[in-house]
Design brief:
single chain, alpha+beta, 4-stranded mixed beta sheet, 19 helices, about 15% strand, 7-stranded mixed beta sheet, globular
């Protein structure tokens, strides 16, 4: 892991250097002969050089350049671990790329830095985006974020582990989940994997909150992180951990760790996205018939609304109108089904366009279950300070497992409300 972080830092430094000399405050260039060079800065979804996202974007950029010889796109990506810091540094230093993939749009829109979707995407292309995810990228009622890749969540369960513990079907309620986890523990395996470490605690937590009628926002769209329902939920999670029904130290365990343990056949149940599947396949322990997916258990029954997440593309205005037309041509090209499906098949994610989602659902039975959850999915808040709130949840909520859930959620709520 340490070597990956060091490599990501090196990539990030290269990205800063590449973007630094471009545009009015760091964006890219247009020459007098009508040729335009755009800069693209994005998150890397790969696990190493062999499947780096740079390869994907370079392939897109090359194909686009062949179709549009007057436009060149220079690509830089940064490992997800370092992406928040590196992208923030670019913005703070006014070294704006033309296009960025990976961050939510509202903070940039609030600062007047990015184009509305209608300025950089043809109407027909925008109309093909999944409406729920497109709406999340709005600021003051205007679409700014362009969803690029998406995902929903379900519960994975190990059929062999459940059967060995005398469990005939996956749990539908929290009481069933805890009882099943205890039975699995008695057989020597980990019952439920609960990742509340800093990698993606906000996802695990929201899925649990939804199961008790809670969430990050009130019905009026304001932060409600320390609602009575949410406090009760986190207390239940704390009690599960204290009873030994989860892996040791849930507050310090990252998602990647419990997903890997599930793939190795050591955990009975985890919540996850389609990205769990390649981890299972790579581990080589579980066959396709050894595991299944089910709806996420809630307090009184399965969730009708599960978590849906998406990573967006935004287009910066720093280079002015000389680049706007080129950005639009490139993004129209990017959102073809061919490139959507190539990306999502490579990284086991879901498309952001309706046509690509339909195509994937017809060809991939396992992914069809996740695609079916999109319509009723609940997404992260689109408030301008969500990124800061999200980072606070990631780094602090794990403390509640051995501390005071009401105090931890109260502190997060106070910070969220003061900046919203």
């Amino acid at each position: 892991m340490k070597s990956r972080l060091m490599a990501a830092a090196a990539i990030g430094a290269a990205a800063l250097a590449a973007v630094a000399g471009c545009g009015s405050s760091g964006s890219s260039s247009a020459s007098s002969n009508g040729k335009v060079t755009l800069t693209f800065f994005g998150a890397d979804y790969g696990t190493g050089p062999s499947n780096s996202t740079t390869k994907y974007w370079n392939a897109v950029a090359t194909a686009f350049h062949q179709a549009h010889p007057s436009i060149t796109v220079n690509v830089q990506t940064v490992n997800w671990t370092d992406f928040p810091t590196k992208s923030a540094t670019l913005i703070q230093n006014k070294q704006y790329p033309d296009i960025m993939e990976g961050n939510p749009a509202p903070p940039y829109a609030q600062s007047g830095l990015i184009y509305p979707v209608s300025d950089v995407l043809s109407q027909s292309v925008a109309g093909n985006l999944i409406p729920k995810f497109l709406k999340d990228g709005q600021y003051q009622g205007v679409n700014y974020g362009i969803p690029f890749t998406t995902s929903t969540r379900a519960m994975y369960y190990n059929k062999k582990i459940l059967a060995a513990a005398g469990i005939s079907a996956p749990p539908k309620t929290w009481a069933e989940l805890q009882a099943d986890a205890a039975k699995i523990k008695a057989k020597g395996d980990i019952g439920y994997g609960m990742p509340l470490g800093s990698e993606e605690a906000q996802a695990e937590l929201l899925l649990w909150f939804l199961g008790n009628g809670g969430g990050y926002l009130s019905s009026g769209g304001k932060y409600d992180i320390n609602s009575p329902q949410n406090v009760a939920t986190l207390n239940f999670m704390k009690q599960m951990a204290a009873s030994g029904d989860t892996q040791p130290n849930p507050g310090g365990t990252d998602r990647k760790t419990v997903w890997a343990q599930f793939a190795q056949g050591k955990i009975g149940m985890v919540l996850g996205s389609p990205a769990v599947i390649p981890i299972i396949q790579q581990a080589g322990v579980l066959k396709s018939g050894d595991y299944g997916t089910a709806d996420v258990p809630g307090k009184t029954g399965p969730l009708s609304d599960t978590l849906g997440v998406h990573d967006d593309i935004v287009a910066f205005k720093a280079a002015g109108t000389s680049h706007q037309a080129a950005i639009k041509q490139f993004l129209d090209f990017v959102y073809q089904d061919k490139w959507q499906l190539q990306f999502d098949n490579e990284y086991d994610l879901l498309p952001a366009t309706q046509s690509a989602a339909t195509s994937m659902g017809q060809s991939n039975a396992m992914f069809a279950a996740f695609l079916g959850n999109i319509t009723n999915s609940v997404n992260y808040p689109s408030l301008a300070n969500w990124t800061s709130v999200e980072n606070m949840i990631k780094t602090q909520v794990g403390q509640a497992i051995t501390g005071n859930p009401a105090q931890v959620l109260g502190a997060i709520q106070q910070t969220a409300s003061s900046g919203s």
